[in-house]
Amino acid sequence: MGFVVLHMEKAHGSDSGMTAYIERFIILKNADPIRTHFNRELVAYPEGVKDRSAAIQRRLEEAGLTRKIGSNKVKTLERENTVLHREVATRGNHRSSANRDTDLRADHSRQVLEMQQRHMTEIQTKEAEHKKEVSRLIRLVEKLCAWFPLVNDSRSSSRG
Question: Which pTM does this prediction carry?
Answer without folding.
Answer: 0.34
